[in-house]
Design brief:
By secondary structure, the chain is α+β, with helices and mostly antiparallel strands. The protein has one domain. It is built from one helix and four strands; from the N terminus they run αββββ. Strands 1-2-3-4 form a four-stranded antiparallel beta sheet. β1 and β2 form a beta hairpin. The chain is flat, with a radius of gyration of 13 Å.
């Protein structure tokens, strides 16, 4: 069920990435957090109306659309 949702949201996520990249102004941030005692990083890129995030785990960026 989760994999189907990810597939259904992929076109929307791609449009968000394009819109943030093409925006006149955007904000970028990274926040460290601990998960099960391990340091992870949440990277975000946002405009006034859109947010795109991705976490880094073991050097691999995993992208997650944020509400």
């Amino acid at each position: 069920m989760i994999h189907a949702a990810v597939g259904n949201l992929a076109p929307t996520a791609a449009r968000i990435v394009d819109a943030v990249r093409d925006a006149h102004m955007a904000h970028f941030d990274e926040t460290g957090m601990r998960i099960a005692g391990n340091l992870r990083w949440l990277h975000t890129a946002a405009t006034q109306t859109l947010t795109r995030g991705g976490s880094v785990q073991g050097g691999i960026i995993t992208r997650h659309p944020l509400p």
